[in-house]
Specification:
This protein has 562 residues and is mostly helical. The chain is built from 22 helices and two strands. Helix 18 packs antiparallel against helix 19.
Length: 562
């Protein structure tokens, strides 16, 4: 069915100069994207320091799986609330409210109060249900020591749920007011505190990869420092919000304020998140250890470390771009400007690809030296059948295949939220979840134990590809075309340049190291492979005339003292 607003919409001819007000908004989006990217990059660097120390403290074995399950649990629960109540509603509703005579203060206070009450209630319920949740996420034969350690750690980590929510609520208000800097840098505070806690742990107890030696003091040091970091992350946004002029006063009573319209959108969004997080819990259970003292096999920690690398280009590039595009898409929808909405969607398809596709090639070609360099605490021992770097690199390579489609699904979510189209988001997420669950079922019943995590990763990549393709088909119909011919040509040229560069980088790195090489040789291999890959990629982009790469590099080159 054709969107009625499409009728009579002006064409958007290629090469036509946008009007001044559009150009100003484009500049603003670019500035906000850069702020988000810089802040995210800084906090991610600290995040890798934290991850390196974490592998030095607990490795990537059974104790690491225990901590990963416990520490991931509040994040998984928060995703339900964040996507269903905060991200889906706060930005669109605050954007509308700020147009009111009072600047939306009364409405904003009621909306924030509602969010905080839901977060508080959900946190208390989750703490009470912790033993049952951990029981559902761990296998019966994992051993009582593993279950006890995971449950105790989960009790300490669960309050993170509220403070993740506080960070999201205050951050969305800051973004609605045009302040992106504090929100982007807040996770750095969490990483600094957690790094300090891990340093203390290593100095006092060294590496503890098995579950049996863990004491109450060890659990408290690791768990409390981890949770304290998230507490500070959430509270750190209060001061910049105060400085921006925003004053919050709790207000209750939501009847007659338009929350009925919000609830319809929320219903579809929460439904989508429920089914996707159901898969998240299923995959956690599928990847949990069979037995705490059994042979080494890839588990939750291997997936978490691979994911921390996989998500880096997405969080720095894609999320920064689509987050900055989201308010603009919301405004375009509110004003019925389909040409502007189409322009924003096409920008979200083209801009991230310039860096995401080379990142895919780098993850596949240089996975092992990347993993070993950033996580020096992981082990390789051929005599004992332990190859943690190889397991993480394999999972990372499989995940990388779905990196670009995953970015498109992030754009899809913002597009649906901007349009208030909860149903479209729901069925696309349902499609993705069904494929993910099939992948998890194959991993559980068919895959050899050492390839369970890799099989789960393969299912996720296939799900991303299918969901992204479905979104492009639907959005093309709603917006009267997306210019996919031009977009596809860009993707193909970037993929070709990235693949050839990745092959060259892999060849250079393999001349330097082998799996048994010490850490320094992995670092040298990464440097050599990365340098060769970068030179070849830039050369090919010149040969293939990919001007988008030149546009990306131009602001950097202008600042170099040459």
């Amino acid at each position: 069915m054709t969107d009625p607003r499409l009728e009579g919409a002006e064409a958007d001819p290629e090469g036509a100069a946008p009007p001044p007000e559009i150009a100003a908004r484009v500049d603003n989006v670019a500035r906000n994207s850069a702020i988000m990217a810089i802040g995210t990059f800084g906090s991610r660097i600290l995040g890798f320091v934290r991850a390196a120390l974490l592998t030095g403290a607990i490795g990537a074995g059974v104790a690491a799986d225990s901590f990963t399950i416990a520490n991931t649990l509040p994040t998984q629960l928060f995703v339900l609330i964040n996507g269903g109540l905060i991200s889906a509603l706060l930005i669109p509703q605050l954007t509308k409210a700020m147009l009111r005579k009072d600047g939306g203060q009364d409405f904003s206070d009621r909306l924030i109060t509602l969010c905080l009450l839901v977060l508080g209630g959900a946190t208390l319920l989750s703490i009470a249900a912790t033993p049952w949740i951990i029981g559902a996420l761990t296998k019966d034969n994992a051993g009582q020591a593993f279950i006890n350690l995971t449950t105790f750690m989960a009790y300490i980590c669960m309050p993170q749920l509220f403070f993740y929510g506080l960070y999201a609520v205050l951050g969305q208000v800051l973004q609605a007011r045009g302040n992106f800097l504090a929100f982007a840098w807040a996770p750095a505070w969490a990483n600094i505190i957690q790094i300090a806690g891990l340093g203390w742990f290593i100095l006092k107890w060294d590496k503890q990869p098995a579950v049996e030696p863990w004491t109450t003091e060890m659990i408290l040091v690791l768990g409390v420092s981890t949770t304290l970091g998230i507490v500070i992350q959430g509270l750190s946004l209060a001061w910049p919000l105060w400085k921006s002029g925003f004053r919050y006063r709790p207000r209750f009573g939501w009847r007659g304020y338009g929350f009925g319209d919000m609830s319809r959108m929320t219903g579809w969004t929460v439904g989508a998140l429920l089914i996707s997080q159901f898969y998240g819990f299923v995959s956690t259970a599928v990847m949990s250890p069979e037995e705490s003292d059994g042979p080494a096999a890839a588990g939750n920690m291997v997936q978490a470390l691979a994911y921390s690398l996989y998500i880096l280009p997405h969080s720095i590039i894609t999320t920064s771009i689509v987050t900055a595009l989201f308010p603009a898409m919301s405004r375009a929808h509110e004003s019925g400007d389909l040409a502007e909405m189409r322009r924003r969607v096409v920008s979200g398809l083209k801009s991230p690809a310039v860096l995401l596709l080379p990142a895919v090639a780098a993850f596949i070609a240089l996975g092992r030296p990347i993993v070993k360099t950033l996580f020096p605490g992981i082990q390789y021992d051929a005599s004992r059948g332990i190859d943690e770097p190889g397991s993480i690199a394999l999972v990372l390579a499989i995940m990388a295949v779905g990196l670009m489609p995953f970015g498109i699904t992030a754009l899809k979510q913002r597009y649906c939220f901007a349009r208030g189209d909860g149903w479209m988001n729901f069925w696309l997420v349902a499609l993705m979840t069904v494929i993910n669950l099939i992948g998890a079922a194959v991993a559980y019943w068919v895959a050899p134990r050492e390839y369970v995590v890799a099989t789960v990763a393969a299912g996720a990549s296939i799900a991303n590809i299918v969901s992204a393709a479905a979104f492009l088909i639907v959005a093309r119909g709603q917006l009267g075309g997306l210019g996919m011919g031009e977009v596809s040509r860009l993707w193909i040229r970037l993929a070709l340049a990235s693949a050839v560069a990745g092959l060259a980088g892999w060849g250079a790195s393999t001349l330097v190291f082998d799996p048994a090489s010490p850490w320094l040789w992995h670092l040298l291999a990464l440097v050599a492979g990365g340098a060769v890959m970068g030179v070849v990629f830039l050369g090919l982009t010149k040969l293939l005339r990919i001007r988008e790469v030149d546009d990306m590099l131009a602001p950097i080159l202008r600042r170099l003292p040459i």
